[in-house]
Amino acid sequence: MAGVAGLAVGGALGYIAGMGARAPAQVVTGFDDILRARGLTPDEARAALQTFVPPGRPELDEFIMISSGGHSGQILVIGIPSMRLLKVVSVNTPEPWQGWGYGETGSMEIFRRLKEAVPPKIFFGGDTHHPDFDRRDAKYVGEWAFIGDKLGGQAAAISLKDFKTKDVIKIPNVQTIHGGAFTTPNTEYVVYVSQYPAPRDPQRGGYKPGKTYVKLTAENYKRYFRGAMTFLYFDRENMRWDLTKSFQIELPPYVQDLASVGWGPSDGIAFCNSFGTELVSTDVLDGKVPFEVWWGRNEYDYLHVVLWRKAEELVRQGKAEEINGIKVIRLETAIKEGILYFVPEPKSPHGNDITPSGRYNVIGGKLSPMVTVIDVEKLKRAIADRKFAGTDDYGVPIIRLEDVMAAQIEAGLGPLHNEFDERGHGYVSLFIDNKVVKYNLGPPDYTGDKPWTVVDKVDIHYNVGHIATPESNSPDPVGKWLVALNKWAVDRFRLVGPLLPQNFQLIDITGEKMRVVYDMPIPLGEPHYAKIIRAEKIKALDVYPPGTDMWTFKRHPHAIELGQERVERKQEGGRWVTEVWMTVIRSTIRPWVIRAKQGDIIRLHITNVEKVRDATHDFGVPEYGIQVSINPGETVDVEFEATHPGVYTYYCLEFCSPLHLEMLGFLEIEPAE
Ligand code: RUQ
Ligand code: CUA
After folding, report:
1. Hey, which of 67, 71, 129 would you mutate to test ligand 1's pocket, going by the most ligand atoms within 8 Å of its Cβ?
2. Cβ contacts of residue 340 below 8 Å, gap of 6+?
3. How far is the CA of 312 from the centre of ligand 1 (A)?
4. Minimal CA–CA distance to 349: which of 259, 419, 473, 226?
């Protein structure tokens, strides 16, 4: 015995000694040693210290960034300045870990409704673009986040109490959307603007997926295709989009692009850019001229100016028609009632963003090196004085750019999006120049002696789209950090194959010179926009109160306590239903045997009776595609049809305890005679 013990000790010592021999200890005593050992410059070391969040100090992430998950159809939650990914919230796409679309009744219901709304094919993808927060007096609140999905033409609402999606809908009468989500100053509505125009039914108007057909000719495009600006009402009590309280404004078939919603001096005004005001021609449709050539012909496109509070009034007066479940203000009505105006803007503009004072809308030129600034005071005056330069082909009044422009700033090539700080600066992303440019605004945002002047530039890597500063596009931004959402990373990360990550770059904007301090790889294509909020505004739950239904935040009608588990087999409308009230707790699923018959509806109500943080259990049924997540305190419903006989081992998928592997049960499905 003694001999064996001796051997073991000798072996262990030998191993340690061997390790020492392979990697001679480099004793690191001070900062300088680390810099030398890692070959870091003092600047790089400073950047590391600015962004580093040591283990156990989560409060050092002062801000939370909610980013579009791009093609994943989801939302990314990122801590700032650490740039650590904290969460992926499933929105438009099924996600197994969160049990989103894998048998849990509420999420299945959302996907069922989306499928019903879009007959050709249920949409399991994504092109999520722009998130926004709920607002009070135009300032971010942080109880809700909203996002739009371009490919799906969908709108989603996410509660920031539990960071779960509560509703996703297909927006009526549109095919794709881009300019959304943008919330109005007190979250009266969430604005979503269509991107590509869709055909309208020549008799009834409106667009129905899988139904509406109009022969594609230049003439029909002009006559029957339309865009739309949608004001969606979100019912925070019921946590559902409510189309009965929403409305839509029909727009000409230009390609509507990014939107913005004003406050303060611009309160009541919603904007969106456009391109493609050339419509389509027979040459385009015959394949002789490509779109990007045809749509570059006009020197100007139109900034759309929509008086949405007035539009709301028109809806109240019954001047909207109900089409496909939403009240629509037809284009003719919008023109006649004076709620829609155009301002010509340098061709193919992109972003338009409101400065903190609410006084200016700053427009990215995309193909023009200019950032064009619209003064809403002048704009309101021009509308009040009916000072127009004519109309477009549909009769929409056009306001002269000279009459409403405050300034043009020569920023550089490819200006896309603007963000702001509280010191009177704007920041614009330059897609072609690969830069972020900082400039002074004008009064009242900036009161110094060099308004509308570029003051700094920094190189980014590479192809920046949106940028984000904390609480920008609100009256209350924080000029501390700027995140550049870069589409290309090229050489910034270790090569992992031809498909490269995107690059979120953190830029310190506190000093006179902007400094890039961090590169964050994003292995999802391609997040468009992100919004950053003061972290203390987010008041997330740590556990749910016992028996909570996440779809109502109320006690679930089928929540039970430990010991109340039961199985009932009964007839319901001519069908057999096996209904089970279950609990999960470390390390037991109760009941651990469920017997049913082939053809039964299996209906489960599973309560996680845990009361401590992080004690989440999962519930999976193999071969039936069931996977749900039950967080501490939560009660979750699962329903599926027992189509195939067999004996199936259901089990918990979270390694929740030492006896996690024993956390299982059997579902016996007896064959039908
Ligand atoms: S827009 S950069 Cu939606 Cu610019 Cu993507
Ligand atoms: Cu519960 Cu593993």
Report:
1. 129
2. 249, 251, 304, 305, 306, 307, 331, 334, 396
3. 28
4. 259
> Collapsing DSSP states into helix, strand and coil, what is residue 8?
helix
Name residues whose C-beta falls within 8 Å of residue 23's C-beta, 6 or more positions apart in sequence.
Answer: none
Q: Is 14 exposed, middle or buried (0-12, 13-18, 19+ CB in 10 A)?
A: exposed
Q: Where are the beta strands (DSSP E) in 573-615?
A: 575-585, 588-590, 593-597, 601-608
Residue nearest to atom 3 of ligand 1 (CA): 129
Locate the DSSP E strands across 262-414: 269-275, 300-307, 321-323, 326-329, 340-346, 352-354, 360-364, 370-375, 405-410
Task: Please give the structure tokens belonging to residue 573.
Answer: 């409308």
Residue 4 binned pLDDT confidence (cut-offs 50, 70, 90) = very low
- Quote the CA–CA distance of 337 and 640 in Å, as a whole number: 52
DSSP string, 181-208: EEE-TTSS-EEEEESS-EE--TTT-S--
Sign for the pseudo-dihedral over CA of 587, 590, 595, 596: negative
| Spacing, Cα 102 to ligand 2 middle (Å) | 18
Distance of CA 241 to the CA centre of its chain: 16
Ligand 2 contacts (CB < 6 A) are 617, 652, 654-656, 660, 663
How close is the Cα of 659 to the center of ligand 2, in Å?
8
> Which tens digit of pLDDT belongs to each residue from 169-216?
999 999 999 999 999 999 999 999 999 999 999 999 999 999 999 999
Q: How many CB atoms lie within 10 A of CB 112?
A: 12
Atom 1 of ligand 2, nearest CA residue: 617
Inform me whether the pLDDT recorded for 122 exceeds 80.
no
What pLDDT, in 10s, does the model give residues 224-248? 999 999 999 999 999 999 999 999 9
Give SS3 for 625. coil
Give the phi and the psi of residue 263 in degrees, each rounded to 5.
Answer: -145, 170
Quick one: pLDDT at residue 311?
A: 98
> What does the alpha-carbon distance between residue 430 and residue 412 come to, in Å, rounded to a whole number?
7
Contact between 483 and 503 (Cβ < 8 Å): no
